[in-house]
Design goal:
The protein is about 75% helix and about 0% strand. The longest helix has 14 residues. The protein is globular and about 45 Å long.
Amino acid sequence: NPSTQAQALYSWILWETGRHEEAVRVIRKVVDVEPTTAQWQSDLGWLLWAIPDSAGSRAAAARAIALDSTFYEPYHLLTWLELTQRNVAAGRAALQRARTAAGGDFWFRETLDGLLAVAAGDTAAARAILARLRNDPRYAQRGWLARVLGDVDGSYALFNKAIDTRDPDALHTLWSNPA
């Protein structure tokens, strides 16, 4: 039998390739074996979010935080959940908790700042973030932010670059993000 870690990684491959229901089935088996592992609870939350099952996702994030309040991922997930509800204040609070738990910053923070700015109606702030990321190799994240800002042509160019450079964010950004 594969280890729980191998099964969890497999669930992420399923998630990144748009096989969300199957990914949830796999990670639920992992959680059944190791219910007190915050990572697996967080992973379940992310996978439920992609279906989308916001209530189940939020509950899994809460379980992950209850198991390990110093783990940044469930706070990162809560940011997305609040963003999809257009609850900017709660999204910003969750993002700050994610930053703190991650030790100051993490890989998706700038894009989330931009998306929260757009949700708050502050497109100037979001455009400034996108401009600061001009030379950043996270093309899929930049493409997403460009699209949310209404720059369809720019977003396609960035997503093409993400695919060409095998940007690790490309698959889950294109296939698995319901936001």
